[in-house]
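Your task
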Amino acid sequence: MPFVQVRGEILSYEEEGQGRKRRLVAHFTDGHNILDLVWFQASTFKWIKRNYPAGKLFIIFGRPNVFNGRLNIPHPDIDPADTLQLGTMGLQPYYSTTDRMKKGGLNSRSIERFTKTLFEKLGDGSGMYDYLPSALIYQLNLMPLWQSLHDLHYPDSADALRRATFRQKFEELFFIQLGILRYARQRLQQVHGLVFAHVGELFNTFYHDYLPFELTNAQKRVIREMRHDMGSGQQMNRLLQGDVGSGKTLVALMTMLIALDNGYQACLMAPTEILAEQHYATFKAFLKNMPVQVELLTGAIKGKKRRDPILKGTREGEVNILIGTHAVLEDAVAFHNLGLVVIDEQHRFGVAQRARLWKKGSAGNAPGSVLSGFPVEAPPHVLVMTATPIPRTLAMTLYGDLDVSVIDELPPGRKPIETQHYWQERTESLYRGIRAEIAKGRQVYVVYPLIKESEKMDMQDLENGYEELCRVFPDLTIAKMHGQMKTAEKDAVMEDFVSGKTQILVATTVIEVGVNVPNASVMVIQNAERFGLAQLHQLRGRVGRGAEQSYCILVTKYQLAKETMQRINIMCDTNDGFEIAEADLKFRGPGDLEGTQQSGMAFDLHIANIARDGQLVQLARDTANRILDEDPTQSRPDYVPMWRHLHELNQNEIDWSNIS
């Protein structure tokens, strides 16, 4: 619920509970309805009753809850009504504070006093210069800067507050987009791309003779987009989005073949060894007897006899495609002529890691090139892939200078995963379903939120779950895997599951980004209420890789909050990753979404909200593009304050070069 402010009086007090569970409840009324004010610190009860007597008018502020069917506000802000000087709308300003601010003696009231003093000193605001061009303010009917700041704190009407909020939100989003797009244009002007002039024999031979199935229209469209990028003379920087199983890997391989046809090498970097190994096996299977040398380089490949031939072949150009993990970033790895870099599950890699791989291309090897600036020669083209769908508004902010391609259809023959919700009490029915699928020759994942039982958390755990499944299915082969195991142990467990030796794999979310097991048809997620939508969707994507019907079972405790139940229902209603991502953005906000920290998003939104302000993000982006078209040299006199303000933001808050 949102914060509320209410004027009224306390009718009476009563104390409830015993010992540590004691609480003081004041019955408060505004003359029409009653809500409870609740305090839990017993040592303050006498002070509260003495200072907030019944029958006196107070103004309270807080966030309402519902407990046992009654509306209440825990630990409200409360002030005598005759001591507050309320604004025209009768509202008391409220300012959020952190624990550190509170320890320093700052609370909402003290911040309000400082703010009021500041506005009194500024007078009518005539000395405050508006850094947005007057023409832009007129075109968009924006409130002037001074007026918007004043009306955010002391509005005299709901419309004034709405317009002030709109101005501040637009300004925040506009300068973010202006910085991203200006940097992207500068890079395009200063960085020339390798020109892949033609589609040659390797690509055409693979397409006509080796392609195992017909490409979807979405795959064809994406390949055309990347083909255009790589032949344009500008560096490709493209984000490829697509749900698990949509065929991103095949698109990446075919894009690499274009690089090979033009005399260049390609590299694919994956976040885990087992995923890199699967890509290697997949590429080898796709290419069969084609004259393409593919090598794998991971931390597990040790010893000079094994590593030296790979490093030598890569350095001299004999290795056409190198697939690896972070190991490809090592100083010992050098390319003869790297033309294309593909990064899988890009949110798992930081900006600096991507830049190091970028530097290994022809540009990075050029004399005088530097990591922080624009290289001397043409860098390799870059394709970053993700199976975590990113809402369009968030993608425009996180990856504003990347072009975005989307594979929005699954290959033919794939059946949508059927998602069902089970209460924890329905274990017998759940086990019957698991037994039936295994009888068909299928395999099952069972995911737990915890490894071991915890007194602090009322959740199912892997160790107890594993023991119970062993008792229920004594005739089956069951294995367990979690993040505390060594890499070699996890790889061995996963290999047994991939080969079909293991029928049930009990795991934590360590399998969220994992290998392709087409025979796995059931994903059981225990305590599904503890996971976010994006993570549930990622886990669900571990099944449904084959032609058979697959199932995702979301198991929860019986009592669920309203928002949690909404998340479960969304998962049961749709398999559309982008619809789920949009809902996840609204539930959690952009700051909590996986990948925002690794992406280089070095700024915080103070007033705008990407989940709710999607149209405003688009308006800000369109306006920024128009400004850059009108003033490409950034020299128009009426735009100078705007460019100066952007420069100050760039110096103090945001590193635009990390937004990629």
